[in-house]
Design a protein that fits this description.
27% of the residues lie in helices and 37% in strands. It is α/β, with parallel strands linked by helices and 139 residues long. It has an 8-stranded mixed beta sheet with strand order 7-6-5-4-2-3-1-8. The longest helix is centred in the N-terminal third of the chain and has 14 residues, at 6-19. It binds zinc ion (ZN). Zinc ion is lined by residues 82, 84, 92, 95, 110.
């Protein structure tokens, strides 16, 4: 299960809407526990894709930025987060390719965002062959 801290929900929604209609991408940080991950922070990263409305290319420097923030705050990099403007919070073929490269260590949060400001957040992890959905809880 992935738990979203109350403050970070607001941050994620504002960040997703600000990037609309482009996909926003970043990392989520927080406290890892054996069966539960509590997300407490978002580290936005530039989307370098040439077609940012439908895909993302993570600026490689984002990996270092996320690690630096995690070290400064005593947290861990838990997952990758990105938005799907006007499309469901379900992994795309492109996401599956990225996940196969990244591996199983990070989970994926996908944020569906519409022009009306409707936000839907779903969590996933890569099991080595496909995405498996995780429960997302809010506290
Ligand atoms: Zn995607």
């Amino acid at each position: 299960m992935i738990v979203l801290d109350g403050a970070v929900q607001t941050t994620i929604s504002a960040w997703a809407l600000a990037a609309y209609p482009h996909e926003a991408v970043g990392f989520v940080l927080g406290e890892p526990l054996p069966t539960l991950a509590t997300v407490t922070a978002l580290v936005p990263v530039a989307n370098l894709a040439s077609t940012p409305n439908t895909t993302f290319v993570l600026d490689p420097v984002g990996w270092f930025q996320a690690d630096a923030v995690a070290q400064q705050t005593g947290t861990a990099v838990l997952g990758i987060i990105h938005t799907h403007p006007d499309s469901p919070a379900v992994p795309s073929i492109h996401d599956a390719r990225n996940a196969a490269d990244v591996g199983r260590s990070l989970f994926w949060l996908i944020v569906s965002v519409t022009s009306h400001g409707r936000i839907d957040i779903r969590g996933w992890h890569w099991d080595g062959a496909e995405f498996v959905e995780d429960d997302v809880a809010w506290n």
